Amino acid sequence: MKILSVVGARPNFMKVAPIINAIHAHNLALKQSGAQSDPDGPQPIEHVLVHTGQHYDKIRSDSFFADLKLPQPDVQLGVGSGWHAAQTAEIMRKFEEVLLREKPDVLIVVGDVNSTVACALVAAKITYDGSGKRPLIAHVEAGLRSFDRTMPEEINRILTDQLSDLLFVTE
Q1: For the chain, N or C: smaller number of CB within 10 Å?
Q2: Residues 6 or more apart in contact with residue 21 via CB below 8 angstroms
Q3: Going residue by residue through the chain (171 aa), what tens digit of pLDDT does each one get?
Q4: CA angle 69, 72, 78 (to 5 degrees)
Q5: DSSP per residue, 37-91
C-alpha cells in the first residue's frame, strides 16, 4: 500500500507527525517480526510526504519539522504565499503532477488550509491512466465547524469533508 500525506502549513505538521510515526512503527514491527515475507500477511506501507510550501520559511516550516522529528518531505511543491485563488490554483496545478507520478492508494489531507482543500479536490477528480482509479481520500480534522462562512478555513473544511471518502477527527 502506498500512502501520500500532504502538509502545507504549521497546523498540518502537528497533525501528520503521529500518522507518520505510526507508519514507521508498523513498518519496523513487520521488519523485526519477519512477517513482511508472508504474502498473505500485513505488508509494509510506502509513505510519501508532500509539502506544498504554503508555509515555507524557517520559522513557519523548518523548525516544526525538526521539533516534531518529521522526515524531510519527499516532494516540495514550493508554492509560497499568495491570494487564496492563486495559491489554491498553483497547489492544484503542481499536485496533479505528483499524484499522476506517485499513484498512491490513499491520500491523507490534514487540517483546513488551502493546501488541504486543493489536494483533496485534485484527488477527487483524478484518474490514473484513464482507469477510473483514484486514491481513497482521508481527511484528518473532519467535522469541525465554526459555522462562520466568512472564514476561508470554514469553506475549506466543508469542501474537504464533502470530497473525502474517510473522515477522521484529530482527537
Answers
A1: C
A2: none
A3: 999 999 998 889 999 999 999 999 999 999 898 776 777 888 999 999 999 998 777 776 778 888 888 999 999 999 988 899 999 999 999 999 999 999 999 999 999 999 999 999 999 999 998 888 999 999 999 988 889 999 999 999 999 999 999 999 987
A4: 130
A5: G-TTS----EEEEEE--SS-SIIIIIHHHHHTTPPPPSEE-------HHHHHHHH
The pTM assigned to this predicted structure is: 0.93
User: Cα separation of 126 and 5, whole Å?
Assistant: 16
What Rg do the C-alpha atoms of the chain give, in angstroms?
16
C-alpha cell at 168: 477522521
Alpha-carbon distance of 91 to 118, in angstroms, equals 6
